[in-house]
Amino acid sequence: MNSELAKSSEKELLKEQYFLLKGEYVKLITDKDVLIEWSKPQLEALYVIKIGAKQLELMKLRLEVKRIKKMTELAVAYLNRNETINWDKIEAKVEFGLQQDYEKILIEAERVYHANHLLSHLASPERSAELRKLYRQLAKELHPDLNPNLTENQKNLWHTVKRAYEYGDLESLQALSIMTHDIESYANLLSADDLKLQIELLKSGIKKLIAETEQIRSEFPFTIEKELRTEEWVAKQNQQTEMLIKQASEEKKKYEERLELLKTV
Questions:
Q1: Predicted local distance difference test score (pLDDT) of residue 37
Q2: What is the pLDDT of residue 181?
Q3: pLDDT at residue 156, rounded to an integer
Q4: pLDDT at position 170, please?
Q5: Closest listed residue to residue 47, CA positions, set 241, 247, 244
Q6: Low pLDDT (below 50) residues in the chain
Q7: What local confidence, expressed as pLDDT, does residue 114 receive?
Q8: Are 131 and 123 in contact (CB under 8 A)?
Q9: Do the Cβ atoms of 14 and 199 come closer than 8 Å?
Q10: Residue-range domain boundaries for the chain
Q11: How high is the pLDDT of residue 3?
Q12: Cα dihedral 217/219/222/227 (nearest 10)
């Protein structure tokens, strides 16, 4: 009798430890998802708007300098061969050679567009808090790492939950929370040895999540998060870019004047 009570008491303590670790794991995994799905895109968008837009202006100007310079060089090559300058041929050759540069600028322009769109459609703090709360609740019930006995339907629900969270779809998450049920009774089906194994797996998973989260935070754009929110730092970065824009503008003017002279030949 005493032996059975001791076993029962041990299992209750193991279950308590299991649920505590499970709660910590859920918090860490949802915090990691917040970093990847929310914080990182928002910081990247902030960087693009505050710093990248000015850099895009510089990219466009430098490409124009490159285009005019190349046209000038090809025109001079015609004269050195004592040939009449074929401007149509030069234009076609230069445009063809700059295709990759144009594509890069289009990509950067798209980034600026999407950054503006993202930052202008941010959820309110209340909505964001509710999204994270529901996601954490659903992760506790449906995350495969925590619930190895999920049915195929529950696995599919988890994919739907992830997608809704990534898109900030609060209404879908609210509906999904009604469709799911709490499966914490899973712990009641485990033996003491199984609980011990699950506890060790959770401890290992928690350690791994902490390391992964620290790694994410050690990379761009988190490395300049503080600076991005400091107007003085942003202004300094843009001032440096403005200086480069001025230099590129002067270089462009020089080549434009030379190109105009060649067109009179």
A1: 80
A2: 53
A3: 81
A4: 80
A5: 241
A6: 182-183
A7: 87
A8: yes
A9: yes
A10: 10-263
A11: 61
A12: 130
pTM as predicted: 0.72
Q: How far apart are CA 75 and CA 151, in angstroms?
A: 71
Please give the pLDDT value at position 257: 94
Residue 144: phi and psi, rounded to 5, are -60, -30
Residues composing the chain: 265
Question: What integer pLDDT is reported at residue 2 of this predicted model?
Answer: 56
User: Residue 5 has what pLDDT?
Assistant: 57
DSSP per-residue codes, the chain: -HHHHHHHHHHHHHHHHHHHHHHHHHHHHHHHHHIIIIIHHHHHHHHIIIIIHHHHHHHHHHHHHHHHHHHHHHHHHHHHTT----HHHHHHHHHHHTHHHHHHHHHHHHHHHHHHHHHHTPPPHHHHHHHHHHHHHHHHHH-TTT-TT--HHHHHHHHHHHHHHHTT-HHHHHHHHHH----GGGGGGS-HHHHHHHHHHHHHHHHHHHHHHHHHHTSTTGGGHHHHT-HHHHHHHHHHHHHHHHHHHHHHHHHHHHHHHHHT-
Residue 98: CB partners within 8 Å, gap ≥ 6? 63, 66, 67, 70
